[in-house]
Specification:
The protein is mainly alpha-helical. It is built from ten helices and no strands. It has one domain.
């Protein structure tokens, strides 16, 4: 009986120890990222806040009397930019710099699970983007008196949007070994998001072929789920948007973790 009891207890105890170690490693990695990047993250957070507020206020300069629909669309699209900019653009550039400086291989040898490392970096990216999201929405409400209707749908929308953006940047950072190529792709993504993705302007203003092409990419769907959480216009496209974002997140995370290779 004693042997049987031990057989039942020991595996669970091993799981508990594994979970405790993973949690300890996760907290340590979050603290390490925040400490090592504190100046960069503060600067990047300030730039995001200023750019978000700039878009919200700058759109009114194009109109003598800005339509409410235009102000609402831009104001609910800016949070998408804020949520994904750190993970999608800054992270690949940071990893490219680590490759050049020679610290990349050292970080890969740390005895920490790849999943824990990815989760810690996602947490940092999420925390970096949230203040700019809140500030841009507050400024938009004060400036335009928008009919915002913030629901609980905003929670999964924010979490999944930030996760998809972070995992895409994570995959790019670790799957592309050439630092110059990484930098060029990350810069191109900024241009694509602002100019060719229906985030800050309606899908109806795009050519039909470009609108259809955007269905296969995550940025359109990020805007759909965020707007569904900020307004009362949640439509039939929301479940599809969540599904597409989920697929992109899983594929990007798998590619990134595969690129990192096995760890101790």
């Amino acid at each position: 009986m004693a042997i049987s009891d031990a057989a039942l207890i020991l595996p669970f105890g091993g799981v508990q120890r594994g979970l405790r170690r993973s949690l300890r490693d996760y907290v340590s990695m979050v603290r390490w990222h925040l400490a090592s990047l504190r100046m960069w993250l503060m600067l990047l957070g300030s730039v995001q806040a200023l750019s978000g507020v700039g878009f919200v206020l700058g759109i009114s300069l194009f109109f003598a009397h800005i339509p409410e629909s235009a102000a609402l669309f831009v104001s609910t699209g800016v949070p998408v930019i804020n949520l994904i900019m750190v993970g999608l653009v800054f992270a690949p550039q940071m990893v490219a710099n680590q490759r050049t400086a020679g610290s990349y291989e050292y970080l890969r040898t740390l005895p920490i699970s790849r999943w824990v490392t990815a989760a810690a970096w996602y947490t940092v990216c999420l925390l970096s983007g949230l203040p700019a999201v809140v500030l841009s929405l507050v400024v938009a409400q004060l400036r335009y008196d928008l009919p915002l209707h913030i629901s609980l749908m905003i929670v999964p929308a924010v979490l999944l949007t930030a996760l998809a953006g972070t995992m895409l940047g994570y995959a790019l950072a670790h799957a592309v070994s050439n630092s110059m190529v990484t930098l060029l792709i990350s810069q191109a993504l900024v241009f694509i998001i602002f100019g060719f993705a229906p985030v800050l302007y309606p899908l109806s203003q795009m050519p039909a072929w470009l609108a259809d092409l955007n269905w296969w990419f995550p940025f359109r769907h990020m805007a759909v789920v965020i707007r569904a959480g900020l307004t009362s216009s949640a439509g039939s496209a929301v479940p599809t948007a969540y599904a597409v974002l989920g697929v992109w997140t899983v594929v990007a995370a798998g590619l990134a973790l595969w690129s990192l290779g096995r760890r101790p």
